Amino acid sequence: MIQYIDQQLIVSKTINFENAEQVYQAGLKHIQQHQNFPLVVDLAQLENGNTLSLAVLVQWLRQTPERKGLHFKNVSEKMLKIIQASHLQDDLKLI
User: Taking every annotated instance into account, which residue ranges of this chain make up the domain MlaB-like STAS (predicted)?
Assistant: First the structure.
């Protein structure tokens, strides 16, 4: 689900109610060990971007310095629409 490769967090498969806490904790572990921010979170392998996925991403962001320590890349169109509907486009750095 979460891999740390080339100084990026790679999120893969699906985040759902059964695994959201596990995914959150796995990502948080990498974020807490990371020294130089921003950290890039690659969502290219995320199969189903949904509001629960977004909640996990936002919770990770809150654990970074000044709550600005994550940059998100390869955001799907569906996830982008959820971000916009949630009025989070100014809070999340999309690259």
Answer: 12-87
